[in-house]
Amino acid sequence: MVAHLGAPQPPSGLYNPAYEHDACGVAFVATLRGTAGRDIVDAGLTALKNLEHRGAVGAETETGDGAGILTQVPDAFLREVTDFELPAAGEYGVGIAFLVPGAEAAQVAAFESAAADEGVTVLGWRDVPVDPSSLGPSARAAMPTFRQVFAACDGLSGIALDRRLYRVRKRAENAGGPFFASLSARTLTYKGMLTTYQLEKVFPDVTHPLFASELALVHSRFSTNTFPSWPLAQPLRGIAHNGEINTVRGNRNWMAAREGMLRSELLGDMAPLMPVCTPSASDTASFDEVLELLHLAGRPIHHALLMMIPEAWENNAEMDPARRAFYEYHSALMEPWDGPAALHFTDGTVIGATLDRNGLRPGRFWVTDDGLVVCGSEAGLLDIDPAKVVRKGRLQPGRMLLVDTGAGRIVEDEEIKSTLAAEHPYEQWVADNAIRLSEVPDREHISHSPRSVARRQRAFGYTEEELKILLGPMAQHGIEPIGAMGSDTPIAVLSQRPRLLFDYFVQMFAQVTNPPLDSIREEIVTAIGGALGPEPNLLEATPEHARKIIIDFPVIDNDELAKILHIDRDPKRRGVFSARKIRGLYPVKGGAEALDGRLAEIFREVDEAIEDGVSFLVLSDRDSNPDLAPIPSLLLTSAVHHYLVRTHRRTQLSLVVEAGDVREVHHVALLIGYGAGCVNPYLAMESVEDLSKRGYLGDVTPDQATRHLIKALGKGVLKIMSKMGISTMASYRGAQVFEAIGLSRELVDLHFAGTPSQIDGVGLDVIAAEVAARHADAYPASGELPPHQRLRTGGEYQWRRDGEEHLFDPETVFKLQHATRTRRYDVFQQYTDRVDGQAKRLMTLRGLLEFASNREPIPLDEVEPVSEIVKRFNTGAMSYGSISQEAHETLAIAMNRLGGRSNTGEGGESVERLYDPARRSAIKQIASGRFGVTSEYLVNSDDIQIKLAQGAKPGEGGQLPANKVYPWVAETRHSTPGVGLISPPPHHDIYSIEDLKQLIHDAKNANPRARVHVKLVAEVGVGTIAAGVAKCKSDVVLISGHDGGTGASPLNSLKHAGAPWEIGLADTQQTLVLNDLRDRIVVQVDGQMKTGRDVIIAALLGAEEFGFATAPLVVEGCIMMRVCHLDTCPVGVATQNPELRARFSGKPEFVETFFEFIAQQVREHLAQLGFRSIEEAVGHVEVLETRAAIDHWKASGLDLTPILAAPARAPRCATRPRRITASRRRSTTRSSRPPSPPSSAASPCASSARSATFTARWGRCSASRSRAGTGERGSQMTRSTLPSREAPASRSAPSSRGASRCASRATRTTTWPRACRAAA
Amino acid sequence: MGERFLVRNSGATAVVSGVGDHALEYMTGGTAVILGRTGRNLGAGMSGGTAYVLDLRPERVNAQALSSGELTLSPLDPEDEVIVRGLVERFAAETHSPVARELLADWPSTARRFTRVLPAQYARVRVALSELEAKGGDLSAPGAWAEFLEVTGG
């Protein structure tokens, strides 16, 4: 039902409303004087209007993302406006129903029938007066019918009546009844898809003189896109939230899992009230529903809140033991709902606010001498006379501000928590019932013969490279190894080799709407241990709830596993806990069918275990043999987890995974992310023991090697969690913050339910085939292992002759360098043929795409010249510090000559270069460390790039070790030579999208003539973030692929975080078009771009500008040694060492030649496709087709149609951006030209306008310095006065639907692109 | 003040009457004088600059930085005392802070209540740089950098 009232966009193409984010302004006002008043409501409305800047509007300025107010039930007002008798105040409930137009009668009937079943009397309905005249068209189109219901139940009042009304509401919802903004005897919410100023215009009720309350909670919403809906506006029924719940998928799954166990005397039979969380609601709505349940089932609302957002108690030695026990006890009942949050809540009497454990959202409060309490996200909510303020402060992480209007006082955090902690003897309960795993006596465990290590390694697909590059370093140093340069190997589904199931999943990470965390520097707020064991009824509190095994670490060794397996031997635990092992093996000859059959059998074994009261299930893939092969541990774990969630029994036991295939941090993270309590990576441990025994680990003993490995794996998981902004293992468990790339939706929906899988892919058959291939390696038909080779080579991280394929192999590197150094286009074509050939051998998603054959070619000389195309090219953000001065300047000189743009990277720019038109970098980057960012730096930029994530390691910070902070590096970074520098994972002034909006505003004020970029990394849902970025008024959004380069990155990030740019770019294009935002922003893309074909495909998918990093570095001399992080680059590219730098042999001319050759190839492709310019080609996905015959044993299941989807909703013309700022920037060179000047140059030629470009730009830069400070207005004016670009003649006609939309738009706006008006 | 007071400070001088968790995080330069309560996790990732904290509770300093020796805690030396007193006097003059005035009233005992928080590597580098300057040395000379790193332990 909710879907009809907004959220008008069903999933289409890559867009899915599930990925929407919001972040907002929130405030409350309350009085301690003990009487309700109109003044409090007015104060709330004023505060709301003062939050306007934290909300957002989309393409329609008159449609807001959402605004609302929650007050006490205004009894006097309601008596005045109803024509039926109301019982005494508190003895009737009231709420606004959002009825779907046309279905009102049926929905009302559904509600009344549910009310009758629950013995609730409907006293009457009131049509809520509404004035929609100020609403924008989308808000109006989605507007529900508002009717206020009044209901009572024989003398029940307050919370007792609310419990009954909850039953009615939930039952009605399950029977197609209406959505209620609230339905309560204590509170009343008015809200909608409004701007803050529209609330009182649209709902005149709230301005009525009799509308009075002691408290008011208000909220202004900023959503990343323009499909906010009426029900999603806040306040919700009990809360208003500014933040993001990063773990919501897990939290929802766990709630679903608990449903079977829920019992409440107060609420009665729970079955008809399920599910607790409404499907497809927002994260905040799910939170609200769970909070409401906990509260109505008997806990004070602030108690319930502390269960869901506990403060960081785990590592706080200073905390009072009773309070600690309170948290520890409740941690056994519920995992934290983790993420940045400022949460304001009320039950109608108490009203309060709290922050998340990291304090990543702002919150301040003021108390006046006449008892007014104001709390909100910022100063200036109300105009309060400072003389009247008796107290002010800020909310602190994990602390609570609570106002009790009933008692007329503020309850201090200390008092709240000590009162709650004293309610039960929690300390005693925990001490009596919980046991630390470390305290369980040792049990003997079976030792396995080391002789079989090699065979088992083969069975699990271990490679020599993994031993050397991954396991060796972890065993030696106890930390995850790092590597350099990007990943240019095929994604798992495109690899010819059998890949582990783990490789089909990529990690999601926080960008823009929530900050990643620093798990190293801010370890005190993290918690890596946790409580395992069955979880009884959430709605009760008994000593038995504390019966748990406490583990300190998510990775356990064989001794610890043995303790769990034999837990019932402990006399104190006998009858309380028991464990059972499930064998995850299947007859390999039977293929997918046997695998599927074995899973079904396992489900039956799990059923039996639950019936027998087993509390720990050990899922094991040990003991494979010539007939039985291991089920991939991830499949085994997630399948069992989801089977139990589906059947609402998941909380009755914990899962322990004993897995041979686990050897990377990413693997452990996945297992925990899909429900494992802890992981025993037995073969990885045996492997490092073996390495130690064979002398590969120096003086590290086998035992130390195991310890180190466990530590590296566990800490690595913490780091992966923190990339997503998650700080506790308990909330990460089952949170599924992963995206599947290349797995069939059927498989995902069954065994990994809720995981995004955007391009479909392989099913059980391929998984079984991959297992079988590995198994055959371990058990060859001959029965003998080949003596000459222990394991396969690998070659995933570094190119090997007999290993995995890389886009850059010695031959492509040689050909590229040769071609650009000798300026031989024919050799260059051999290079691109080879790269494109590789791509077509299906190493990349773009390799699966082909150009449509029905295009009419045009003569090459009609296509825009090379000199125009190269202006769309950028080099990647590589800091001076990570690459040498020579390498950095060579790129800058080449790009300046071409009229493209080079990028400073994070590290500033020396003053000599800043003012040197030849050597400066046009793009100045602002990264999280802000090194070298000064006013002078910003003023002298053409583009300002705000880096929110980096392709190679999204969500992570960086570190420049002391020995690399050479004096010249320190100087440009304004730091001290020889002292290491840290870049934090988040920007500490961007914790949310409205913070980003502020920074963009500041950047534009620093330099009104510069374009502002926001750099994002492709991941599922990046399109909605890009839409948010457009709403922040960024000029450019850059979508980086997951495979981008780096000077140093943990290997798991390099390989397993983020998605290919093809998906992210298409998602961005589609979402921007759907949102009518495409013409506000320029879209740029980068990530392993190497050929003209790559550029054309990117343009057709929607990109207008293109970034290259690795390829120009190779042109400069890089030979892909991948040792950037070691400062030993043998060709002087990625080093500061003066001796190595002397070997640098690159020249700007080589780089220029590279880009000109690329541009020439682009021209040839354009001519072939009948486009005269890139501009004409942008967004024409219909020119792309999926290759007809895909000859690949895995890739045949892929479905790229979502990538090629053209949004049907919006006008075609929106894909044709105005390129406002781009043309503004280049007005001297571009606007004077005809749109598609014929070029006489048939071969690549140097830009004739080079020197003119320099002068123009240089002159402008000086001008911009004098103009700095003119503010946004200047840039706005420039924008609106720009000419729109010519419409091409050869464009296909827009759909009739699009045309009619265009027409309606064209009458509204004069700045609409001419193409659209022409079409209309 | 909020959490992460002076985060990534690279040169500013600040006097403040109290700070929240994670104060001085990622600081690379500048000076902080904290006249009151600190939150937990002071000085995490602090690689440069100097902080002077009144009544510092060492358990509230980033534990890893202390145990690894990255951060050093020490009483004020006479030079520090001059700096801190000057800053507190200016703070008192400009803000009329009663706290500051009270502290200045009995400066000798106040000075003893301060702890200096200083990153060890930063301190060594500063000494080495001033010695180098005194000698008229040049870091970009061949071999100078390696020697410098050796001296400073970088």
Structural summary, described in words:
The complex is a heterodimer of chains A (1320) and B (154). Chain A is built from 45 helices and 42 strands. Chain A is of the alpha/beta class and 1320 residues long. Chain A has an 8-stranded parallel sheet. A 7-stranded antiparallel sheet of chain A has the order 7-2-8-1-13-12-14, with helices on one face. Chain B has a single domain, classed as Glutamate synthase, alpha subunit, C-terminal domain (Pectate Lyase C-like, 3 Solenoid). Chain B contains 6 helices and 5 strands. Chain B has a 5-stranded mixed sheet. Chain A binds chain B through residues 316-318, 358-359, 362, 394, 396-397, 518, 520-524, 929-930, 961-963, 965-968, 974-982, 984, 988, 1138, and chain B through 2-4, 7-8, 10-11, 20-22, 25-26, 28-29, 39-41, 44-45, 47-48, 59, 62-64, 119, 121-122, 125-126, 128-129, 139-140, 142, 145, 148-149, 152, 154.
In short:
The complex is a heterodimer of chains A (1320) and B (154). Helix content of chain A is 35%, strand content 15%.
List keywords for this structure.
heterodimer; A: 1320 residues; alpha/beta; Glutamine Phosphoribosylpyrophosphate, subunit 1, domain 1; TIM Barrel; 4 domains; 8-stranded parallel sheet; 7-stranded antiparallel sheet; 45 helices; 42 strands; 35% helix; globular; disordered C terminus; B: 154 residues; Pectate Lyase C-like; 5-stranded mixed sheet; 6 helices; 5 strands
Q: What is the quaternary state of this protein?
A: heterodimer
User: How many E-type strands of chain A?
Assistant: 42
Query: What structural class do the secondary elements of chain A suggest?
Result: alpha/beta
CATH superfamily of the largest domain in chain A: Aminohydrolase, N-terminal nucleophile (Ntn) domain
Percent of sequence in beta strands of chain B: 15-25%
CATH H level of chain B: which superfamily? Answer: Glutamate synthase, alpha subunit, C-terminal domain
Summarize the main sheet of chain B: 5 strands, mixed
Number of domains of chain A: 4
- The tally of domains of chain B stands at 1
Biggest sheet features of chain A: 8 strands, parallel
Please mark out the parts of chain B with pLDDT under 50 across 5 or more consecutive residues, or reply none.
none
Q: Fill in the CATH topology of chain B.
A: Pectate Lyase C-like
Strand order in space, largest sheet of chain A = 32-31-41-40-38-37-34-33
Q: Based on the structure given, which CATH architecture of the largest domain in chain A is correct?
A: 4-Layer Sandwich
Number of β-strand runs of chain B: 5
User: Taking all residues together, what is the mean pLDDT of chain A?
Assistant: 87
Q: N- to C-terminal separation of chain A?
A: 35 Å
